Amino acid sequence: MELFKIEHVKMRKIIVPLKNPFQTKLQHVQEREAIIVELSTGDQTGLGECVAFTTPWYTEETIKMAWFVMKHYLIPELLKATFTHPDDLTNYFSHIKGNRMAKAAIEQALWDLYAKRQQRPLYEMLGGSRTAIDAGVVVTWQTVEELKQKVDRAVEDGYTRVKIKVSPQSDIEALTEVVQKYPDLLFFADANSTFTSCPPVILERFDTIGFRLFEQPFREDDWLDHQRLTEQFTTPIALDESIRSYADAKRLVRMHAADCIVLKPGRVGGTSRSANVIRFAKEHEVDVWLGGMIEFGISKAHNLALASLEGVTLPGDFSASNHFWEQDIIREPLTVAEGKMHIIEAPGIGVTLNEDVLRSYEYKRFES
Ligand code: OSB
Ligand code: MG
């Protein structure tokens, strides 16, 4: 087996305004920070993207923390390491607790590099087969007018799966009208924990709208409440925030705390663990789809590779590059047509950095 070492590491922090603010009960996101990681050896470079947010409004990790942990702990370990496979990284990082999004960004870059060295697309190396991936867009809304406009727009843009942000205050008649207007579309509802301590009479009405699934009604550690609702509801329940590790995915299955896993690779610590979650879910016939983090094309390309696995059973948060961004940081913008996004058949993740665009967003750099 071929051994390799990482010879060069580059990290860049970027900050990019969103085309339209992402407004939910949890947070108004107007700008997105990210860390783009490059790992090189010989003449090959692998790419990763850290999906932590600027502040801890969604997960504990933040961009500042991730940068610090990568620079002072993860990268020094990485530079000492010798690899035969990206899975070797687990051992080198095992004495560094948590910080899964920081670890995932590095692991992504290592997987991309590994696949490029073998001259093979990443999705293939992960055991994936499909290259046309079901796309999906998310709709945030303040008024009924905005809800209707955004759903119409999504249909015009070719999406066949639309995830609508909901809360107990959402207008149920308007939601029902929108869902009935497009009987061929898949509608998901994402509650982002807003139904914690919601009166049952309101909650029950959300079971009659016609959503394909109801995502994360309660807080991330409210396993028993989710389990009870899964028993009571006709609409399948999905868990997003609750799934922070492979063990959480197992817990969902063993407890039947929900019917479906929303897999965010950064949150569970990377590509290898994500592939394990997908395999486990398939064995136990639980639905899985890839969740989005308002990310750039690097993270999206990694998620697409995972979505090519057979165990991924529902369309993920795969919106086109031009949905959130005026200009994505990749040279091959990801597009949606007839409800699908296509994996680019090239070694690794198949996409490359647009250096001009990246440099215009860059505000901090570290090299080693
Ligand atoms: O709950 O799925 C979520 C974005 C940021 C943080 C959490 C969530 C979301 C989304 C958008 O719903 C997903 C996307 O990037 O398309
Ligand atoms: Mg969600």
TrEMBL record:
Residues 144-236 form the Mandelate racemase/muconate lactonizing enzyme C-terminal domain. Keywords: Lyase, Magnesium, Metal-binding. One of its GO terms (biological process) is menaquinone biosynthetic process. It is an enzyme of class 4 (lyase). One of its GO terms (molecular function) is racemase and epimerase activity. SUPFAM superfamilies: Enolase C-terminal domain-like, Enolase N-terminal domain-like. Its cofactor is a divalent metal cation. InterPro entries: Enolase-like_C_sf, Enolase-like_N, Enolase_C-like, Mandelate_racemase_C, Mandelate_racemase_N_dom, OSBS/NAAAR. Its EC number is 4.2.1.113. This is o-succinylbenzoate synthase. The lineage of its organism: Bacteria, Bacillati, Bacillota, Bacilli, Bacillales.
